Amino acid sequence: MVNNQSISETIDVLGDGKSFVRLINAMGSDVDVVNGARVSFGKRKETLDNNDRVLIDYLVKHRHTSPFEHVTFTFHVKCPLFVTRQWHRHRTWSYNEISRRYTSVGLDFYIPKAYRQQAESNRQASTDELLTFQTGAAGPTIQDAVQDHTDGAVAFYNRLLEMGVAREQARMVLPQNLYTEMYATVNLHNLLHFIELRIHPGAQWEIQQYAKALLDLAETAAPVSIKAIREHRGW
Ligand SMILES: Cc1cc2nc3c(=O)[nH]c(=O)nc-3n(C[C@H](O)[C@H](O)[C@H](O)COP(=O)(O)OP(=O)(O)OC[C@H]3O[C@@H](n4cnc5c(N)ncnc54)[C@H](O)[C@@H]3O)c2cc1C
Predict the structure, then answer these.
(1) Residue 8 and residue 219: Cα distance in Å, rounded?
(2) What strand order describes the sheet that includes 179-187?
(3) Annotated catalytic, 100?
(4) What SS3 state is found at 98?
């Protein structure tokens, strides 16, 4: 459900009107980064001045990371299951996710318009070359074929439920392009670690888009820190 109290814009990450990420809550900002860094001198600031901007730049440049742990974010995310599987490898986040044991309603699926070719040099990756042809001489487009497969899986899932099969077992026939929703909480240091690994061109395109959206949303709460990050890391 959309939370109207959310403090940020909602970003349609995959551009299909279904995916999203929004910032629900942010605790702390740039001033908490500098206060964390300066606490050893017994100093505390209420507002940021130019010395603080220089300090944040220094911290980013020299990977003095712990002050960034004093800013924390909660994001509401809707992403395909296969993206969640990659995301949940990041153990420094806290997660709560929709339970398909609990509900069988609101099934949404990611049906990309574009399909990437398998990379040959990197067995894990795809190329930027897009496939545009039909699945067969007179066959459907790839997008239509994925849609048909998804519709078939949903029909089968519903049939299993009608037969009395429990939701927790019936869900096993749903494909990985099923959307899931989660609340995900993380501090700025660990967020930046996630973004560094997942914004990289070697990461899957879909999770790269989420990493970019998270960076944009973090910027609304800690603009000076994120500006320095963008400059030093080239993101
Ligand atoms: C492009 C790409 C491809 C990948 N391919 C695969 C794959 O094929 N198969 C696969 O299984 N995974 C794969 N991964 C996942 C990867 O191995 C990591 O699990 C994932 O990126 C999380 O990284 P992390 O452990 O640094 O992050 P986090 O779990 O967020 O941990 C952050 C940091 O905390 C420390 N830390 C956390 N927990 C521990 C711990 N238990 N012990 C020691 N240190 C800890 C580490 O320093 C770690 O870097 C891939 C990741 C990327 C980005």
Answers:
(1) 11
(2) 10-11, 20-27, 72-80, 179-187, 94-97
(3) no
(4) coil
Whole-prediction pTM value?
Answer: 0.92
What atom of ligand 1 comes closest to residue 92's alpha carbon? 30
Say if CB 68 and CB 189 are below 8 A apart.
Answer: yes
Residue 98 to residue 129: CA distance in whole angstroms: 34
Catalytic residue among 22, 100, 171, 198: 198
Atom of ligand 1 at shortest distance to CA of 86?
15
| Residue nearest (by alpha carbon) to ligand 1 atom 39 | 91
The CATH number assigned to the domain with range 10-100+180-233 reads 3.30.1360.170
**CA 93 – CA 194 distance, rounded (Å):** 10
Per-residue pLDDT of the chain (235 residues; tens, 9 = 90+): 334 445 788 999 999 999 999 999 999 999 999 999 998 777 788 899 999 999 999 999 999 999 999 999 999 999 999 999 999 999 999 999 988 777 777 899 999 988 888 777 776 777 777 666 556 666 678 899 999 999 999 999 999 999 999 999 999 999 999 999 999 999 999 999 999 999 999 999 999 999 999 999 999 999 999 999 999 999 9
Domain boundaries, given as residue ranges, for the chain? 10-100+180-233, 115-173
Contacts of 105 (CB under 8 A, 6+ apart): none
Q: Give the E-state strand segments of 8-160 in sequence order.
A: 10-11, 20-27, 72-80, 94-97, 115-118, 126-131
